[in-house]
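Good morning C.,

I know you're traveling, so I'll keep this short. The sequence:
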Amino acid sequence: MHRTLSESGSGDASLDAMQPRDAARESLVALLRVAYSAELAAYIAYLGHERSVRDPEEKLAIRRIGREELVHRREVGRMLAALGATPSARRERWMPWVGRLI
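The tokens, ready to paste straight into the viewer:
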């Protein structure tokens, strides 16, 4: 039985091994881009929540949680950079709106 390149891979074992790895990397980068921008939306949502609360202790707790979101964002940003990737400019533009709506 004769198989085509699309059925059997490229015929080059090193290229065939890289394709799943590249796909996994791209999937990871896509997830990290979502996470990076979602951390911004979460931070903005916590800012809004903090403004709606009167109790000083509760405000402080909410502020701490918001700052944790920024720490997470920084960590995810480092992961993106280590992969040679950058955040999604499009998500960065619309996630602040998501944070305001929450």
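Safe travels,
E.
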